[in-house]
Specification:
Number of helices: 1
Strand content: 35-45%
Largest sheet: 8 strands, antiparallel, barrel
Shape: globular
Structural class: mainly beta
Distance between the termini: 50 Å
Length: 192
């Protein structure tokens, strides 16, 4: 009998709460639960993308431009504090003339006093095929002299809504004098 009374009390309380929210005209809510299907999300996919990023610092049309250099960067072997904005081409092959599939747009900053390690904040903005207009967002640490670096994919837009995964970067070529580099990327991502 006590269990029935508790169950009826809980049920009545829930019904009263719903009725009260409707009777006050409350139409604004901070949050609600949704099914993925109600948002048009279908089966989750796992994809691999392979491309080359061309980070060009030298020449008359650089794709990476230093925008901040604190006085102490001149004394730092790691260039600590240097900030660079990028709009780097992404191509199918390592040659600059290779087919353009997108651009890496964002910022990298030298964020370590002990080694050359960059904080990478960038979007892979794709321009090719069904991915045209879709982006993957990277936010992570890049120790540029490690053979392979891994950075998280923290989201995306377009076909990459709710994306998650990781990007592996490997230096293909580096000109230490000019600071120009071609980086091979393998990106593994879950998306809808």
């Amino acid at each position: 009998m006590a269990k029935l009374l508790i169950l009826l009390t809980i049920s009545f309380s829930a019904i009263a709460a719903v009725a009260a929210s409707r009777s006050t005209g409350e139409s604004h809510r901070f949050s609600r639960y949704l099914s993925p299907k109600s948002m048009g999300l279908k089966k989750e996919k796992f994809s691999h993308f392979h491309f080359y990023l061309h980070d060009i610092v030298s020449g008359t049309k650089p794709t990476a431009v230093e925008v901040a250099e604190p006085a102490l960067s001149n004394k730092s072997a790691t260039l600590f504090g240097e900030v660079t904005v990028i709009d780097d081409p992404l191509t199918v092959g390592p040659e600059p003339s290779s087919k353009l599939v997108g651009r890496a747009q964002g910022i990298y900053a030298s964020a370590s006093q002990e080694e050359i390690a960059l904080l990478m904040v960038m979007n892979f903005a794709f321009m090719e095929g069904k991915y045209n207009g879709s982006n993957l967002s990277v936010l992570g640490r890049n120790t540029i002299f490690s053979e392979v670096r891994e950075m998280p994919i923290v989201g995306g837009s377009g076909l990459f809504r709710f994306a998650r995964g990781y990007a592996q970067a490997k230096t293909h070529t580096l000109d230490p004098k000019k600071r120009d580099a071609v980086i091979e990327y393998n990106v593994y991502v879950f998306h809808y």
